[in-house]
């Protein structure tokens, strides 16, 4: 399967997130890939640096009414509302599925109350997962989600709480729907975050003028896709200058060129999200193209690219 | 189930009615794998429109390795498709979803009911069901696209909202007016029609399968955009949401709340 096995020794794509070694810096963004089962019919999950699961809560969540998505220029809005089966089914079904593969497992954790987060984080302590990504940035649920991510005191508090109960390193996933992203990143770092991932989706709206109604039943949704990439790259750049913890960058990554922008701006790893909907093979294409870029430019160690543009 | 993404070639394109187009596509793989009721995702060439358009298969020609889609121009993406001519290359993903359970039709009198742009997938079913089958097609008005193709497969009854052809009214009005009877119903069309058919099937105690539609993103069951309400707890999220793209689009009528 590894197309470039012959060259494997020449370029080193390994990166380290809080002591967890990823074979390459490419994962996929939470919510765009389920727990990997559906995409495993298209891509070899062994090739990914990590699989990031869709958000998991303490109990099953039904999500929002439909329509849940709408296409926009160069992007899409979603208001899925974190539909998920809850930690019991997830732990019984999805973790054993992912353990069949030689990749790292990042579990995205969501909750409505601090106690919800703690319950899931504690349950995951006994599970063979590598990293926890705490979702304090979903714009599509009324309680929890973004409410924890738009006030620095709340960010620091929920981070500290999750850290106190977590056995695995904790990634805090930040919302771009704030005035100054560096304030939130510093708050997460102050709370003990081992890494930061950004950006979650930007809150948006689309109106169907023919029907004179909202395109989404939820009225608003999270904007993702290439349309948001420049915002995301800017925020990764700002955050990388503000904190010392590693950053996982995401927001509209379609190609290796996009991924490399994030890495050069300061991301240690990157996540491919909405592109999966356009091309189920997007993740592995990005990996292959990053390798080709490194060969073309004589870059032996991908770490030499992290934050190389200041 | 086998599925894949490939670059396929358009064989021909034809306008059947206002905003209704028919396209034949060369795809030996998908034609070999597909069953009636399944759909393909079709990608636009404009990268500003990044989501694939799910379109049901109207005909599956395994021998010639080709597929037919009959679709409505509903926006800029499908408008782009309607301009493709022979030899144009397009990216498609499929076959996706679960089709109609054709084995259930053996030895039964089957209704194949299509309403509007729900008519095309019923043709694929008509072509593969060997036994006694009756097509009931509902149109808003003329022209009665695909009616002749159905006629080649068996009896066809038509309902039109404007009364310009067949029974004035909907497909159930046609069934009642003509005194038609069936042991099994396969149907695809707008939700109000499916809701009425579900009630009719319940009243008659007839086994009924409905093909649903919803806005989709991934098309393969990962993103959870296209859920419908299900009677039972679903297998994926353990709530009451079945995924139209993956668990459907064809469901037992009792499975779903419409």
Q: Biggest sheet of chain B: strands, sense, closure? A: 7 strands, antiparallel
**Gap between N and C termini of chain A:** 36 Å
Which stretches of chain A are poorly predicted, pLDDT < 50 over at least 5 residues? 1-8
Strand content of chain A: 15-25%
Radius of gyration of chain A equals 18 Å
- End-to-end separation of chain B in angstroms reads 27 Å
Instruction: Note the main sheet of chain A.
Output: 8 strands, parallel
What is the molecular shape of chain A?
globular
Total strands of chain A: the figure is: 16
How many DSSP-defined strands of chain B?
17
Helical percentage of chain B: 10-25%
**Please, how many helices of chain B?**
6
Mean pLDDT of chain B: 96
Helix content of chain A: 25-40%
Largest interface: A-B, 40 and 34 residues
Offer a few descriptive terms.
heterodimer; A: 310 residues; alpha/beta; eight-stranded parallel beta sheet; four-stranded antiparallel beta sheet; 8 helices; 16 strands; disordered N terminus; B: 258 residues; seven-stranded antiparallel beta sheet; seven-stranded mixed beta sheet; 6 helices; 17 strands; 19% helix; 35% strand; globular
Structure description:
The complex is a heterodimer of chains A (310) and B (258). Chain A is of the alpha/beta class. Chain A is 30% helix and 19% strand. In chain A, helix 2 (114-125) links the parallel strand 7 (104-109) and strand 8. In chain A, helix 3 (152-165) runs parallel beside helix 4 (181-190). By secondary structure, chain B is α/β, with parallel strands linked by helices. In chain B, helix 4 links the parallel strand 9 and strand 10 (156-160). Chain B has a 7-stranded antiparallel sheet with strand order 4-3-7-1-2-6-5. Chain B has helices at 28-33, 76-82, 120-128, 147-151, 171-178, 191-204; strands spanning 4-17, 20-26, 39-42, 53-56, 59-61, 66-72, 89-96, 109-115, 132-139, 156-160, 167-168, 184-188, 207-211, 227-230, 241-243, 250-252, 256-257. The A-B interface holds A 31-34, 38-39, 41-42, 54, 60-63, 66-71, 73-76, 78, 80, 83-86, 89, 225-226, 274-281 and B 3-5, 43, 47-52, 77, 93, 214-228, 236-241, 246.
């Amino acid at each position: 399967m590894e197309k470039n096995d012959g060259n494997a020794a020449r370029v080193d794509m390994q990166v380290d997130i809080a002591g967890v070694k990823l074979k390459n810096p490419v994962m996929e963004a939470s919510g765009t890939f389920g727990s990997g089962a559906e995409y495993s019919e298209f891509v070899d999950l062994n090739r990914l640096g990590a699989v990031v699961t869709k958000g998991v809560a303490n109990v099953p969540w039904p999500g929002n009414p439909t329509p849940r998505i709408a296409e926009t220029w160069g992007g899409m809005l979603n208001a899925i509302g974190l539909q998920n089966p809850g930690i019991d089914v997830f732990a019984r079904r999805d973790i054993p599925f992912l353990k069949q593969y030689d990749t790292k497992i990042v579990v995205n954790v969501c909750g409505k109350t601090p106690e919800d987060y703690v319950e899931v984080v504690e349950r995951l302590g006994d599970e063979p997962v590598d990293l926890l990504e705490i979702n304090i940035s979903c714009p599509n649920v009324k309680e929890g989600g973004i409410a924890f991510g738009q006030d620095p005191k709340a960010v620091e508090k929920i981070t500290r709480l999750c850290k106190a109960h977590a056995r695995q390193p904790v990634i805090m996933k930040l919302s771009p729907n704030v005035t100054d992203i560096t304030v939130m990143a510093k708050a997460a770092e102050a709370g003990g975050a081992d890494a930061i991932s950004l950006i979650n989706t930007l809150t948006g709206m689309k109106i169907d003028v023919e029907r004179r109604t909202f395109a989404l039943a939820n009225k608003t949704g999270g904007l993702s896709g290439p349309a948001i990439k420049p915002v995301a790259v800017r925020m990764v750049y700002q955050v990388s200058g503000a904190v010392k913890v590693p950053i996982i960058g995401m927001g509209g990554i379609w190609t290796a060129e996009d991924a490399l922008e994030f890495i050069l701006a300061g991301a240690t790893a990157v996540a491919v999200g909405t592109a999966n909907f356009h091309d189920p093979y997007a993740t592995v294409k990005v990996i292959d193209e990053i390798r080709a870029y490194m060969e073309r430019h004589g870059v032996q160690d991908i770490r030499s690219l992290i934050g190389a543009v200041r | 189930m086998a599925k894949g993404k490939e670059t396929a070639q358009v064989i021909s394109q034809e306008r059947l009615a206002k905003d209704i187009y028919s396209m034949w596509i060369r795809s030996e793989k998908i034609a070999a794998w597909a069953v009636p009721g399944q759909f393909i995702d079709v990608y636009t060439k404009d990268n500003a429109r990044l989501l694939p358009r799910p379109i049901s298969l109207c005909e599956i020609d395994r021998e010639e390795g080709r597929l037919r889609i009959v679709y409505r121009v509903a926006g800029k993406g499908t408008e782009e498709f309607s301009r493709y001519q022979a030899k144009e290359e397009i990216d498609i993903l499929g076959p996706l979803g679960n089709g109609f359970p054709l084995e259930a039709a053996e030895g039964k009198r089957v209704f194949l009911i299509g309403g509007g742009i729900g008519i095309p997938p019923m043709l694929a079913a008509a072509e593969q069901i060997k036994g006694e089958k009756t097509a009931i097609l509902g149109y808003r008005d003329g022209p009665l696209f695909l009616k002749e193709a159905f006629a080649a497969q068996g009896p066809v009854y038509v309902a039109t909202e404007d009364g310009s052809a067949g029974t004035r009214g909907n497909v159930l009005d046609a069934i009642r007016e003509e005194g038609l009877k069936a042991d099994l119903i396969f149907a695809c069309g707008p939700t109000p029609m499916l809701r009425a058919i579900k009630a009719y099937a319940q009243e008659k105690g007839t086994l009924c399968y409905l093909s649903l539609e919803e806005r989709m993103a991934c098309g393969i069951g990962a993103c959870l955009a296209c859920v419908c309400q299900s009677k039972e707890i679903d297998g994926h999220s353990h709530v009451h949401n079945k995924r139209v793209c993956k668990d459907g689009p064809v469901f037992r009528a009792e499975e779903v709340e419409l």
